[in-house]
Amino acid sequence: MPGRRDPSSGESSSEDEEISPTSNGLKTTITNGTKNEPEEEPLDLAKVGMECGLKHLYSGKEDKKGRYQWQDEIPKDVGKPVENAQTAKWALLVRNVKVYNDPRKVLAIHSIVVQSPLLKKMLARVLKDYPGVTAGLARLEFSGKFEPIIHRWTELRDAIEKLGDDTDDDKKTKEHAELFYNLLKTEFKSMIDTSQDMKSKGVMTYEHLWTLFQPGSTVYARQDGQETAMKLHETKYGADRNGNPCFWLTCKYVDWDGAKFGSNKLNLSIPLYSGTRHINQLPVYPLENHHEKDALRTRLIERGAKAETLAGSHYKSYHGIGWKRGTFGTKDKYNIKSRIVIDTYGWNRFNPSYAIFVAPLNQKDPVGGVIGEGSDDGGGDDDVYDADADDSGMPMDGQFADEDDSTKRQPLTTEQKLICTPLIRGYSLKTKMWLNFFVNCVQEIEWQTGAFDSLVLPSNQKELILGFTESQRKFKESFDDVIEGKGKGIILLLCGPPGVGKTLTAESVAEEMKVPLYMMSAGDLGLDPRSVETKLQNILEMCTKWNAILLLDEADVFLEQRSLHELERNKLVSIFLRILEYYEGIMFLTTNRVQTFDPAFQSRIHISLDYPELSIDSRKMVWKNFLGGSQQKNTVTDRQLDQLSLMNMNGRQIKNVLKTAQLLASRKDASLSYEHVMTVLDVTQHLHNSTQENERTRASIFC
Asked: If one looks up domain 618-702 in CATH, what number appears?
């Protein structure tokens, strides 16, 4: 029958099968109303990429999740660009957006593009040194809250008033500037008037805080109780780590990293508050709003100059608070009243987790022509604002600068001294800790100039000790072992009974040479061999760097002879034997049990001095020195001193008796007399009598 296909024939009529045109190299067939998969035409591999031309693809319609497919047809809803040759002739392009929930207006300015070259020249003067603004770019755009213009509103108004009418360019510039000014005044008049009114009355609301803080200005805050000035880098509304709204300020200050001065960043915040608040009651506010701004600037500049003189390694006295970061990020505070060594390079070396690194002072901030600062597009990633998130807490190139480069540094300017940090880093010799110190609490050391002279020793022995130590400090590089760095130090052993001046010798030598004295004890190292070696190496390295004298008091604790049964003690002794070989400084060892020393130490000791018991003349000199150094008046005569010196006492016992006698005299409001001393001796005589024989016996076996 006509119109019907024979199933066995394998042919089809034109009514049953239609072939669609080829599209994009694919042929689609439709059979019985069903669309089959397109058939790809065979591709000649020799033609791949050889056709000279462009093939455009376009994004298709997006679904609810913003996903789309690429297509080769232009979307039908695409219009023509609104910025073209016709819009380029206008001095300003103003983009407006719809405003909702505001009955006073239906449109608001979204952004302004400044196209007038004359207006750009004027804005370049008005916005000079404003961070992030380059007014000379071909396309200058302002958006968001227009912070640069609002912050420099007064300067803009003054610049327009100074424009003249002498030339055509001047007239044209004034026209464009007034157009720009009136446009912004109409848009932001209410906000500008409100801000200016609050500033004149010394108050500010939380919503208008951004108008108070101009990037590049100097702000004031108290950090750890210290007055601090910083340069404001940028501001932003956000939230703190607990999710509470706050106003973030990223500030820059000058710091020292152990080799050079540079800038560092600090994030400060002002929490949300309601109503108005006095500007000088804010945690941070402009320095110009301080009630004693001139006196404050003078104080901060003087402190910055002092911080500059403390750059490097210095031996100073300190009386104040020192602090360091605790295990959980807290500030552990310590009351320090002792001598310290200021050394930021050493801080970085021994505290790499809290090391100081800075950006060069001459490094320019990145700038851009498109200004969109402070826009209201609240993003979800701004819950906690951290401007330092990109530095990863590491210095440039992963290493800290060599301290030797510090001699080449440039002096700080007055403005850099103003924003210099109040903190310095150093080591407390009393508490044996690396701490942050405050510049204003650092003082010069009051040297005990008579300490070495009051040392009761034969003059030739004193000269020998002082000569060895001073020469070692000056010429330690002149002698070396076969192995480099080995045997450069000098070790002095002082042995003798208690109270004859062994420890005082090391202390008075350090005082005479005006160098730090590091008093190392068993508590500083512990007894675990795994940690003793590391701690001992660190201490020796610090003492070598500071040219300090290292005093190991009661050294027999660590240097006792090795035995077959005490494996742990043998480990400690072997550590000392090996590490002392590489010490490059001066070490004093004191002991009253030299007979217990391991024989291997004998070859490592350069000078061994025996301190005998005090003679009658020596004891008299000790009595004289203590009486002469006391602030309390005394009536002790020379004949009475002769009688006191006949008593077999060591220096420490004499000091204790005199101290007790002075307390007794003070109780009676009388001058110290011979009777007071004898009263104390009568009370404590039983102790001296019971120990004298034992002391004589022990003294006979010392070196």
From this structure: 1.10.8
